[in-house]
Write a structure and sequence with these properties.
This protein is mainly α. It has a domain at about 40-110. Helix content is about 60%, strand content about 0%. Helix 2 (about 30-40) runs parallel beside helix 3 and helix 5 packs across helix 6. The longest helix is centred in the middle third of the chain and has 15 residues, at about 65-80. The chain is elongated.
Length: about 110
């Protein structure tokens, strides 16, 4: 009878990203993910739009109060957990992406590049 020896995960001593980089694997989107919070559309444009109610309403087809009400209703259902690989997209950002998709009819891919 063979006894299976369970291999220890290579991630126990370091983060998955550190492990990948040490093995020579560089994720294609790594730079984009790292700078998303400083340069992303949600963190720049949408925060500016919140200051101007009329532009916010034209962009999302909802006013700020409706957006906040919708976020309180669906936020807990669309919130994701933090993982070792990356921090999740916030519920507000997920909702903004969905509403922009519904308002414009653009594909998610074109919205991702905006």
């Amino acid at each position: 009878m063979k006894v299976r020896v369970r291999q220890q995960s290579p991630f126990r001593s370091c983060s998955p990203l550190t492990y990948m980089l040490s093995r020579g694997h560089i994720p294609v989107h790594l730079g984009t993910v790292r700078t998303r919070r400083q340069h992303g559309e949600y963190h720049r444009l949408v925060q500016d739009l919140r200051l101007d109610g009329e532009r916010f309403q034209r962009y999302f087809r909802l006013d700020r109060a409706q957006f906040d009400e919708l976020l309180t209703r669906v936020g807990p259902r669309i919130t994701r957990l933090d993982t070792n690989w990356r921090s999740p997209i916030s519920a507000a950002e997920r909702l903004a992406i969905c509403l922009r998709y519904l308002a414009t009819g653009d594909s998610y891919r074109s919205i991702a590049y905006s």
